[in-house]
Amino acid sequence: MSVRVVARIRPLLEKELDKDTIVRAECSQEGKSMNIVRIPNPKNEAEEFSFAFNGVYDTETSQEELFTNEGKKSTA
User: Fold this and answer.
1) Which distant-in-sequence residues (6+ apart) come within 8 Å of 66 by Cβ?
2) What is the pTM assigned to this prediction?
3) CB contact set of 21 (below 8 Å; sequence gap of 6+)
4) Using CA atoms, how far apart are residues 15 and 19, in angstroms rounded to an integer?
5) Nearest CA to 20 among 50, 34, 41?
6) 19 FRET partner, CA 20 to 30 A, in 10, 12, 54, 74?
């Protein structure tokens, strides 16, 4: 059995909407599914942090879609 690590980017809270913190999901290779999360460094706006996952889901992803894509695979 292997472990998959996925991230789901949540929608911004109302108090976060006016801040410049933008969390982005990206693909490491063209044509592949999203697997990188990028966030700005709060101490230096010119830098950003990136984190790699087995899969990344954006704010539009429903709980049902996430379960279908990730949860059902592991129970099959």
Assistant:
1) 6, 8, 57
2) 0.72
3) 39, 40, 42
4) 8
5) 41
6) 54
String of b and e for 15-31 (b: at least 16 CB within 10 Å)? eeeeeeeeeebeeeeee
Edge-to-edge strand order for the sheet containing 24-26?
24-26, 36-41, 44-52
More confident residue, 16 or 51: 51
- Spatial neighbors of 43 by CB under 8 A, at least 6 apart, are none
